[in-house]
Amino acid sequence: MVALTSGMFATGELTPRLGIDLAGGTSITLEAKAEPGKPNSINKTNMDTAVGIIDRRVNGLGVSEAEVQTQGDKNIIVNIPRGTNEKQAREQVGTTAQLYFRPVVTYTAGTPTPDAPPSPKPSAGGKDGKDDKSTPTATATTQGRAVTDGLKKDPTPTPTGSASKSPEKSGEPSATPPADPATAALEKKFAALDCAEKTDRVQANMGAKPEEPMVACGKNNGGQWEKYILGPAEVNGKDVDDASATLDTQRGGGWKVNMEFTDAGSKKFQKITGKLSQQQPPQNQFAIVLDGEVVSAPSVNQTLSANAEISGSFTQESAQDLANILSYGALPLTFSTETVTTVTAALGGEQLQAGLIAGAIGLALVVVYLLAYYRGLAFVAIVSLVVSAILTYTIMTLLGPAIGFALNLPAVCGAIVAIGITADSFIVYFERIRDEIREGRTLKPAVERAWPRARRTILVSDFVSFLAAAVLFAVTVGKVQGFAFTLGLTTLLDVVVVFLFTKPLMTLLARTKFFGQGHPWSGLDPKRLGVQPPLRRTRRVSAPIDPKEA
């Protein structure tokens, strides 16, 4: 108890995190859009896949208890509790386009605004030595250089047939004369693009197809916009099997992003990185494009296959963001955000108040019953319940920052139900002790002899409760999992409290005069338990023996 309470003050978390029904939050409605030429793409399979990806994407940010579920045939409802990562989660929920890896044909950086400091060069080279000079804008992208096993993608050929561009000595790329009208139109669009303007960024890649080149914007490490000409998509986001952010112990302890591809994806990846590794900057770069925006543009220095690694000037947050995008960015459908509403905690607060009142009434009835039936033993039960409550509260509080656990109404219900489970364990032990006393034993041996039999019963009972909670947690989703988690946690704590507190406390109390000698108010009075005093045995008087005749 001391260690857990100290942990609460050390982390600064003094109250449990609350779910959306208790703390309020944001509810987002997404509507699925059929892909061009695929009117039947909106089906149950694709919707279920999208729900799973969005759920992992949101909860991957540490926003626990976020609910993602379908509504009707083409809507998905996302409920995000109020918390530190709520804004970030909202941004990623809206980012629902397909993820593509495109080769960089050329890029240019604007000039930083007076209040924007020049962006630092990535340690492993995001732009291969180019200075970032783009116009400042909104979200920051981490650009890292691909290393062995790294995400190293870079374009080589332009789809239209024009020669690839290379930067001039001054650092600004120069474009070769277009070879055909399509290339000319693309370069004209590139020259007119102003990434600092949101409307320009949105319209820049509107209608772009994966098999066609495009222009796009992306942010560098300094938070400044850069604009790109990108070749056709070489690898689809669905080809990424997994991605994770880890510490790069070999390069000064920075952060890196590890990627794993599917079998088909590794072949595509190997083919394109083989081409890119032979190119000169910036055409040895590969842009990771999500929702038409370049989220990273690492360079390639060797052929890669199934595994890749992106390293550079990553922070922990930026590495985890990129890993999240790579892992969960490839949705099978395109979604538009229909509504974003704020959910208040008023209704949940009223329900919580009613639930706590009901729990208090139930607890009071349990205490009255214990006092009436067990008398002095009720002190042991009440103190044990208090210990269990303190442990439950502190652990729930610490699980918030540790695993993102959030307390919702069903979880509160699970904690209230646990009062009965914990009280059952005490009653089993008390009745075993009283049975031993009824057999004529004193309290000290009764406490020790009753424990093995009570222990088996308690363990079997708690195992059944924990098994039910585990099954419920595995086969349910959303708030019901909160109930199952709390029920399982409190069941485990019941075992801890009974073994490490209630039993030792009874051993100590058995040495006291009040309990040891069976005071009438101790709950262990032999007379009250119906123990019959042992019968006194008297010495038999032997019958007179007739003297034998002489």
Structure description:
This protein has helices at residues 2-11, 20-23, 44-59, 86-94, 181-192, 198-204, 263-276, 316-328, 346-374, 377-403, 409-438, 443-475, 479-509, 513-516, and strands spanning 25-33, 67-71, 75-81, 99-109, 144-147, 166-167, 173-174, 214-219, 225-230, 235-236, 240-248, 254-261, 286-290, 293-296, 307-314, 334-343. The longest helix has 33 residues, at 443-475. It has 550 residues and is of the alpha+beta class. The protein has three domains: 20-96, Alpha-Beta Plaits (2-Layer Sandwich), CATH 3.30.70; 97-330, no CATH class; 358-516, Multidrug efflux transporter AcrB transmembrane domain (Multidrug efflux transporter AcrB transmembrane fold). It has 14 helices and 16 strands.
Q: How are the strands of the biggest sheet laid out side by side?
A: 4-9-8-14-13
Which regions are unreliable across 5 or more consecutive residues at pLDDT < 50?
111-176
Strand content: 15-25%
Please give the share of residues in helix: 40-55%
Structurally, the number of domains stands at: 3
User: Distance between termini?
Assistant: 89 Å
The 3D shape can be described as elongated
Rg value: 35 Å
SSE succession: HHEHEEHEEEEHHEEEEEHEEEHEHHHHHH
Number of strands: 16
Alpha-beta classification? alpha+beta
Number of helices: 14
Mean pLDDT across every amino acid position: 74
Main sheet summary? 5 strands, mixed, barrel
